[in-house]
Amino acid sequence: MSKTGDLKSLTVPRVLEKKRNGEKIAALTAYDYTFACLLDQAGMDIILVGDSGAMVFAGHDTTLPLTMSEALYHCKAVRRGVKHALLVADMPFMSFQVSVEQAVKNAGRFFKQAGADAVKIEGGDNMTSTVRKIVDAGMPVMGHLGLTPQSIRRFGGYGLQAKTKESAEKLLNDALKLQEAGAFSIVLEKIPVDVARIVTEKLSIPTIGIGAGPFCDGQILVTHDVLGLYEKFRPVFARRYADLAVDIKNACQSYIRDVKSADFPNKKESFYSDPNLL
Ligand code: KIV
Fold this sequence. Notes:
Layout: H1 12-21, E1 25-29, H2 33-42, E2 46-49, H3 53-56, H4 68-81, E3 86-90, H5 100-112, E4 118-122, H6 128-136, E5 141-146, H7 152-155, H8 165-181, E6 185-189, H9 193-202, E7 207-210, E8 218-221, H10 223-226, H11 244-260
Parallel strand pairs: 1-2, 1-8, 2-3, 3-4, 4-5, 5-6, 6-7, 7-8
Helix pairs in contact: 2-4, 5-6, 6-8, 8-9
Bound molecules: 3-methyl-2-oxobutanoic acid.
């Protein structure tokens, strides 16, 4: 079977193999069953139940309000639709920062209750003992460096990260430490192309970029940005492959028009009883 037609489930060892083989990794987010089925059937390598769902699904201004029970609910729905991709669950803000014990317990809930294949954790150096403990318990961890949206209050905005020599060196050091702690891949968000390239070259685990240029081992975007569904904010780095917000509004307007003009439902869309019934 060709690579794109290969329908075997993607595992963590196979993700690592992709880096060794120089094969790019494609990832998108999903928050519900229907989108999970569509992305999976399209051949996505990794599907992330991102905490971006707090924004694009639930309408919050940041990712911070997402709770563990909401994240688990989304992950369970996505699990039912994913047959082949690697399913990664984003650990919500304050579900892993308080203590290593809390992090391991909450990570375990994604595996036991929601069928996740891996969890994602934001943070570098400060998270290495947490990552190590979760991995030691048998649960694969994806790291996340650069613009980590759970620290938005500290950053004060969604600007480019690792712009200075010092912060770029810190990012590289964080990436190496996450790898050493057992992370199987690292998301690099909104950092300069050359920083992402050097980090990618120095690591043996794949980097998955979002606004981090073409040299990462894979790319991830928020599905609602890719499909033109989220109109509140449009990141410059997110390429748009469809304009579904426009299509959906047009379809809804056609429906409203047909209902109001009594064009819908027509004969074929209605049920008729035996004329002698009444
Ligand atoms: O929550 C999310 O969607 C993410 C990415 C897009 C990397 O963390």
